[in-house]
Amino acid sequence: LLDSVANLVEKPFAVLGSFSKEFLELPDEVLITSMKNHQKYFYTTDKNNQMRNYFIGVSNTEPKDDTIRYGYEKVLKARLSDAVFFFENDKKVLLENRVEQLRDVVYQEKLGTSYEKMERFYKIASYLSGQLASDRIENTQRVAYLCKGDLMTEVIYEFPELQGIMGREYARAQGEIEVICKGIYEHYLPRFAGDELPETNEGCFVSIADKIDTICGCFAVGLIPTGNNDPYALRRNAIGILNIIRNKNFRLSLRRLIDYSLEVLSEKISFNTKEVSEQVYDFILSRLKNILHEEGIPGDVFDAVSGYDDIISLQSAASAITGVKDGEDFEVIATSYKRINNILKKAGWQRTDYDISLFQYDFESKLDAAIKEKESRINVFINNEEYKPAIDELLGLRRVVDDFFDNVMVMDKDEKIKNNRLSLLNSLKSVFDIVADLSRVKNA
What whole-number distance in Å separates Cα of residue 405 and Cα of residue 397? Predict the structure, then answer.
């Protein structure tokens, strides 16, 4: 606001005005929006951060008398009087009845009405609650059902930027428990970069559900962002989903969330489910890649762990690899992995079963023993989400792998020996793959 006012006036003069204390009965956000957004006035609070019935306007001409102040007060009084009228009228109608009015509001031509959208994210929010906090399902469903009701109120028609905020206030007025009221407000969060995130699980579940339904719906009907064209704010919605999941440490399968959302959507429209699922997954994952890159995770490391479907696991594994990727042991072992991968690809080999009786060298037996030992230990570490120790186990394979390649010819003339060694290498590759796809790390 200060920047806006500074650009509007050449020679500013502050004017202190006031309004009736009766208007303080309005929600603070209505008062602030009326003064700050609409009139470019600075609102005032007391030492306890409570709203006061004073404001500061900025005039471009020096006041000679009270004319400017009276003008400021007159305009604000009219706006606040309207707000009081709308607010009192709105409270006469229950949010449930407002929700029913959404049946007549088109959300998007192909995706149906706002009521149908609510029905979809109601199911998705219920699914999330069932996965993450089954004791919150009833409250989550109540939030999901009521959260769009304020769109049909008079205050929101006049102050559209107060969506969610007024829903919270109307829910309080009709006696809903506080977690429901708070969840209604929180389901819009985050609204922009750096905005606050939902605190309640109910608010988180409905926020994620609403956003993932928007993304899936738009992709299903071909409304995919291109360049700067993103009318449904799909990028912002994807980042919002990721930030909520990371902030609350929610453990869930991103793919299953997307697939369930598309399953719900398929009851309304027809589309290529598999294709849209991949598009949405890649779209959200690319946002996560950008977020983690800003936090110091290289793109190639992200690609190496992109097989993790759980976002918390993915970022933990990425952090662990980033911490060791510049070390000599990691570079050597990653190079060996790429060599193994290339040999297997060239041979078109996919089997992992081998016969130890066909081993001709002690180096094969040592590699076999190392594979079995490391596989067991790495699985334990990964299951316990201890990624650094798991990577250390991989690094511990350096000597035995080097010895194998230095002393054993994989592509032996004897077909059985060759195939047995290919299977041995594929088993070794499978151990690496438990942690990450090291072929995608660029420094090796």
Answer: 12
